[in-house]
Every structure is written in C-alpha cells, then in structure tokens.
Amino acid sequence: MPEGEPDPSLADPHTLLEGYLDYYRRTLLRKAARLSEEELRTSRLPSGWTPLELIRHLQHVEQRWLHWGFRAEQVAAPWGDREPETEADRWYVPDGMSVQEVLDAFTRQCERSREATADAALDRRAAVGGRFSAPGEAPSLAWILFHLLQEYARHVGQLDVVVELAGGGTGE
User: Are 32 and 51 a contacting pair, CB within 8 Å?
Assistant: First the structure.
C-alpha cells in the first residue's frame, strides 16, 4: 500500500473510496504503533474502550459489511467484537489474545476486504442471505464503502485523542 492520501488527480470513485479506506487503515495502525502494549490495553476514556478493542472492532466491522453483508458469506461470529453473553454493548478482546494476534487478524481482514471489492461495481447491491434478508434492504457497494470510510474517519479521530492523552503526540 502506498503511503498518504490517494493522489488528488484521481477521479474514479471506486479508486478514491478504496484509497481512502487504505489510508485510514494505515493511519490506524501507525497511531496504534505509538502506544505500548499497556496503553493498547488501557482505556483513557469514560466509555471504557481500549485501542486494542477499537482495532478488533474495525476488523469485525469490515467482516460484517463486506463478507457477511456484501457477499452474504456465512461467518462464524459476525458480532465477535462484542462482549459475549452479556447485556453490555461494548467491544472486547478475548483473554489471552495477544496484541500481535489482534493486529494480524485486522491486517488479514483488510486484505480479504480488498479482494471482496476489487472487481465489484459500485452500483452492485449486497447479496441476500447473509446480513441482509431481503433485496430491498441490501445497500449498494458504494454505500457500504462510504459507510466504512466514515466509520474509520470517526474512529481514527478518536484514537488520535487517545494517543495524545497517552503522550504519543498529535496528528499524523
């Protein structure tokens, strides 16, 4: 993946959406790399999420929208980023899961996501049978990619605040 934002001369919407998703994926990992393992597993915010939980959440977000959603693939745990068997709607990392395992799973999911969307037209609707049970509720790939992009932008901004609070600097 090239560094930085996509080239400003690009006009193809598919290339721009994919390029910006990759930009935010790299930015997420770059910001997380500024944190120690302890900081990755510690919350600095009242809501209680940790940076490592955020990374695992985004892995599952991509799986939910692109594999379970767009491709209607059956996935073992589409909501696997949520604490199991509790009423709490919070992210979690299973006990014993290492930082490297979380990062590797995220990276693998990003690679799978790129493969899932590379040759698909933006106006193609998500398949029925996974996340979506009726054609009328199945969004277009353009909508899904834009949704993922806004989710990444929001969460990378939140991580930026956490990195600053941990003394890891600001900005890029």
Answer: yes
Whole-number Å distance between alpha carbons of 89 and 80: 12
Instruction: Return the CATH class of domain 13-165.
Output: mainly alpha
Helix 13-32 / helix 99-117 crossing angle, nearest 10 deg: 180
How far is the C-alpha of 158 from the C-alpha of 166, rounded, in Å?
13
Backbone φ and ψ for 82, nearest 5 degrees, come out as -100, 145
140 three-state secondary structure: strand
Do residues 103 and 55 make contact, with C-beta atoms less than 8 angstroms apart? yes
**What are the residue ranges spanned by the domains of the chain?**
13-165
Phi–psi pair at 88, nearest 5 degrees = -70, 130
Instruction: Give the HSE-up count for residue 18: Cα atoms under 13 Å, Cβ half-sphere.
Output: 23
Compute the distance between CA of residue 74 and CA of residue 43 in angstroms, rounded to an integer.
32
Q: Which residues of the chain have pLDDT under 50?
A: 1-2
Residues 52-99: pLDDT tens digits? 999 999 999 999 999 999 999 999 889 999 988 776 788 999 999 999
